[in-house]
Amino acid sequence: GSLLIGLCILCSRPAQHKLASRLCAGMTALQFLLLAQGASALHVLRLPTAHLRSAAAAMGEIHRVPAPAPVSDSASLAGDMTGVTYYEDKLCVEEEECELPEEGEFTVAILGDLHLDPRKMEDYETGRGHFLPIIEDAQRRGVATALVSLGDLGESKSVDPENTQELFAGTTACHELAAGYLSSFGCPYEVIGGNHDLEGIDEFSTDEANLEAFCRIHHKPTMQFCRQIADRTLLVGLGSTVFRTAKYTSHEVTVDDEQLAWFERLVSEHPSEEGWKVFVFTHAPPIGSGLRVLQENHVVNGCCWLNHSGGKNGDPRTTTKFIELVRRHRCIKAWFSGHFHLGQDYQDSITFPTIPREEGPYPNRGSCVFAQTSVMRAGTSRDTRQQSRLLRGNKDGFEICTVNHAAGGTVRLDATITYTDSNHEVGVYAHDHAELDHDSFMKVYSPSEGDECYVGYDGDGDGVSIDPTDGCQVDEETVAWWHMSDGRVLGVYDGRLIEYEPSTLAPLGLVVGYDELQGKKVVVVGSGVPDECVASTASVSQAVGMEGADCAEFEGEEQAVLLVDEETGGITVVQPNEDGSYWRKIVRNKMVRMKEKRRVQAGRAYAEAAFDGSPDAFEGRVVSSWGPYTSIVGTAVKTGVAGLTTQAENVAKAEQRWQSLGSEEQGRAWAATGSQLADAFNKVDADGNGSISHAELAAAIKVVDPASTAEEVATMVAVADEDEDGEVTLSEFVMLMLYQRGPALAK
C-alpha cells in the first residue's frame, strides 16, 4: 500500500508542522514537489509504505486509536435497530491531526445483492454517499481500500415493460450500469457473479457467452479474483458460472470445478503458519457456515448454499468441499456472502469459529467468521433492512460493521475478532440482536450432537425402528431429528420433514411439506433387511482377508420412513431419491421450464382456435404430462401430489364426499344438472361408447359442490374410475350419485 495521500496532507498543513517536518525531511526535493502537485502526482510516485512506517515509528508518532468499546445497553438495537455511528469521532477532520495507519491496516466496503434498476437509482446514490466519507477518510490516512460486490447486479425483470419483456439481469446494459456504479466509489472494486448475473437469456445463447461479457465489462480475466489488500492479507472471490445448463434449479450458486481447484491451491500455498490471512467473498454461503437466518424458498428449492445440489455435475462432494477447506486451512479468517436479502441485525447473521460451551459443542468452522450481507435498496429487502458491510482490519484482527442506509448511513460495530495466534481467534459481538418475526424466512433449527431433540434407537428394540414424533401428530411446534441407518440425517421442524447434511448438520432441503405432513405421525421401520446383514444375527466370514465381506454390498440396515394418518388409516411411504438422499430436488433448470411453459401456451392457443372458445374457457383443461415432474413452477411450495402421495388419505375423504353428494338435497341438484350433463355427454361421446372424460365429470362435481378443491375433485374422479382407463361410464356415475354406491363403495 501507499501513504501518499496522507503524506500529502501532512506536509501541507500548518497544524501538522512538527510531525510533517520529521516525515518529510528525508524526502528529496523532487519527491516533495511531486507530492505537492496534487492528485495527478499520486499516480506517478509511490513511496514504500514499510519505510515510512518504520521512520515514523522510530519518532514515536505512530499510534492507533483504541478500538471502540461495545455499544452500551442504552444504545442497543432493541428498538428501531438504527444503532450508533462510532465513526463520527474518528474521521480525519481538516483542523485535527489525522491518525496514521497501523501496520497491515485496510478498509473494505462490501455490498450485498444490488439488483440495480435504472428507474430506481435513488437508494443506490444515497448508499454510495454513505460510503464515500469512510473511503475518503481511509485514503487520506493512507489506509488501503477496496470495494467488493457480492453479485446479483441487476433486477431480474424487465426495466422497460412497455417495450420489452427481456429480463435486465445479466444483460450487457445491466453489467455496464453496474460497472459504472461500482467504479464511482473512488477505490478499486471487485465483483463476483451471483445466481442472476448470467441471466441474460434473451441476449446470450450460452453461459459461456454471458460469462465472457460479464468478465470483459468488469475488466476481470476470470470470474474468481485474488487481491492483496495488506501485508500477507488477501481478498479472494469465487463466482457462479452456471445458469442455462444447471442440473436442477438455475438459481443454485454454482462454483465450477476449475475455480474450486484454484481456491484449494491458493489457500494451500498461503498457510496461516506464515502469517497469511484470507478473506473470502461469495454470493451464497457454504454449507456448514452456521448462518441460520435463511430465505425459506432458498432452503426448499435447493439453492441456499454454494453448490447446494452438487454443482454442475450434481456431485454432493462439491457441496461440502468449501467447509472442509475452511477446517483444514486456518488462513481463512472470514467469509462474506449475500443472497438472502435479509438484514444484519440478527445474531445468526454472523457466526464465530467457536461458541461458548454452554451453547453447544464445538462447531468445527476452522478459524473462519461467516457474515451475511443485506441489501442497499428498499425494494429488494425482504425484512425492510437496508444495510451493507464494512470490514476494517490490521495485523491484530478485524472488525465487522454495518452501514445502515435506512438510518442516514450510521455505522455500527457488529463484531470484533482478535488474532490470538496463527490458528485461533476470539470473537465478541458488539450489540444486542433483533428477534425474528417474519413469515417469508425462517431461522432454521440446527441440530447438534447430544441436544434434547435427538431421537436415538432403543437398545431393546430391533435397531432399525423408531418413533421420532413420540406417537404424536406433527404440528408447527414439533422438533426432532435422527440418524438413518445409512448415515443420512432427517428431522422434523416447523411442520416440515427436512434432510440435514450429516457432517455439518445444516439443512439440505425439504423432504415433506407441511401440506402433506400436518396431522400425521412420522415412523421409521425396518424394511425387510436380510437376517445375515443385521448386526445382531450376522455371520462373519472366517476366510483370511475376507472378514465381513458377506455384506460388502450392504450400506446399512434398510429402513422405510412412513407418514401415518391414524384418522383415515392412510400411510405414505417416503421413498429416497436415486442417489439415496431424501430431500426433493423439485425445481428444474429455468431454461427447461420456460420451454415447457411455451408448449403449454401453444396448446392453449390451439384449443382456442380449434374449439372457438375464450382463454378462460380452457383454464385447467390444457394440462401437461411428463415423467417424474408434475409442475412447471419455479418455486416449490408443497410436496403432496394429488392421486400420488396424498392418495391414501384422500380416498377415504373422497368416498365420504360422494356419500354427502348423494343426500336428498344434493340429489335434487344432481337431477337439475342431469339434463346438462346428458347434453354434454352426447356432444363428447361422438362414437356412442357410453363413457365420459375425467374433465367433464370434474366440471359436473364443481357445479353441485362448488366448495370442492381441485385436489378433492381429482381424488373423487379417481375413485369413480375403477379401471383407471381415464373415463367413467354413465352407469358408474349414476350409481355413485343417486344410490351412494359404486365400484369403490360397493366393496
Short structural description:
With 747 residues, the chain is α+β, with helices and mostly antiparallel strands.
Explain what the structure shows.
By secondary structure, the protein is α+β, with helices and mostly antiparallel strands. The chain has 18 helices and 24 strands. It has a seven-stranded mixed sheet, covered by helices on one side. The chain has a six-stranded mixed sheet with strand order 4-5-6-8-10-9, with no helix packed on it. The protein has a four-stranded antiparallel sheet with strand order 16-17-18-19. Strand 16 and strand 17 form a beta hairpin. The N and C termini lie far apart (85 Å).
Strand-residue proportion: 15-25%
The averaged pLDDT comes out at 74
List the strand order in the largest sheet: 3-2-1-11-12-13-14
- The low-confidence parts are 1-84, 438-443, 533-554, 642-649, 738-747
Determine Rg (CA atoms, Å): 32 Å
Distance between the termini: 85 Å
Structural class: alpha+beta
Molecular shape: globular
How is the biggest beta sheet arranged? 7 strands, mixed
SS elements, strand count:
24
Helical run tally:
18
The helix content, as a percent range, equals: 25-40%
